[in-house]
Design goal:
The protein is of the alpha/beta class. It has 13 helices and nine strands. The strands form two sheets. It has a six-stranded parallel β-sheet with strand order 3-2-1-4-5-6, sandwiched between helices. The chain has a three-stranded mixed β-sheet with strand order 7-8-9. Helix 4 runs parallel beside helix 5, helix 8 crosses helix 12 and helix 11 packs antiparallel against helix 12. The chain starts with a strand and ends with a helix.
Length: 287
């Protein structure tokens, strides 16, 4: 498909690369032009200096940017230049409100907007193994799903516009609780004088097992927190979760508490550490 891609960062860059490798003609835009030019030169894509250039004649327009305001700006700039009936797929994690807003805006100009946040982190993007949770028109999603599978292991339609973002919020709630529990477990094992590697071997094949345990237990114990999804980004996501919870009346006491714990990690200088750095907060308290 003739494709435009906006946002060539640690997630978007590899995703766009997989699209090129799958045979799609991809014009890549990034707000830092040098990054877009480097990406195009390295992977055989087309350099686009503006959103409009990336969008011209595109049947599929993908974005992976920063926040609600970024999505509004990029979609507004792209819409007049897209092919008739084009599908916009937004992989940014945003509010459900902006997803519905952009869907209405796209529909008014003969296009479709799919909110499609992802799970899997930088490693998932690099390896083409992301999980996509999508909201919006099912027929439009089915048209572009073969392209999305270039960087995904699963694409799941969750319902109308906003449903993808709401599902991503569920994902982040789960992660927040699991990582805090894991941080406390590592901390407890250390304070009890146990060999943390031996503890992992003992408990990781039973009911306590999780992706976070398999991938972060040993690095948490070593105080290594340089593995992708940053605390700043997690706090942005949890802010969206807590806003939505206030609106729908759900009670998220643990999520709110973990969000505050992440604010303590930020105060320790860990704004760019990964989410497993909840362990650093406990290590600091122990000292």
């Amino acid at each position: 498909m003739k494709t435009g891609f906006a946002g060539l960062g640690v997630m978007g860059g590899p995703m766009a690369r997989h699209l090129v490798a799958a045979g799609h003609a991809v014009a890549g835009y990034n707000r830092s032009p040098d990054k877009a030019r480097t990406w195009a030169d390295a992977h055989g894509g087309v350099f686009a200096a503006t959103v409009a250039e990336a969008a011209v004649g595109a049947e599929l327009f993908v974005l992976c940017v920063g926040n609600d305001d970024d999505v509004r700006q990029v979609v507004t700039e792209a819409l007049p230049h897209l092919a008739r009936g084009a599908v916009i797929v937004d992989h940014t994690t945003t509010s459900a409100k902006v997803a519905r807003e952009m869907s209405d805006l796209a529909a008014g100009q003969g296009a479709f907007f799919i909110d499609a946040p992802v799970s899997g982190g930088q490693a998932g993007a690099e390896n083409g193994q992301l999980s996509v949770m999508a909201g919006g028109d099912a027929g439009a999603l089915s048209r572009v799903e073969p392209a999305l599978m270039a960087y995904s292991k699963a694409v799941k339609h969750m319902g109308p516009s906003g449903a993808g973002q709401l599902t991503k919020m569920v994902n982040q709630i789960c992660i927040a609780g699991v990582v805090q529990g894991l941080a406390e477990a590592v901390h407890f094992a250390e304070r009890a004088g146990l060999d943390t590697d031996a503890v992992y071997d003992a408990v990781s094949k039973g009911a306590a097992q999780s992706w976070q345990m398999d991938n972060r237990w040993k690095t948490m114990a070593r105080g290594e927190f340089e593995f992708g999804f940053a605390v700043d980004w997690m706090r942005k996501d949890l802010g969206l979760v807590l806003d939505e919870a206030r609106a729908n009346g759900s009670h998220l006491a643990l999520t709110a508490l973990v969000d505050q714990f992440y604010s303590e990690v930020q105060a320790l200088g860990g704004a760019r550490w990964d989410t497993s750095s909840l362990a650093a907060r406990l290590q600091d308290r122990a000292r």
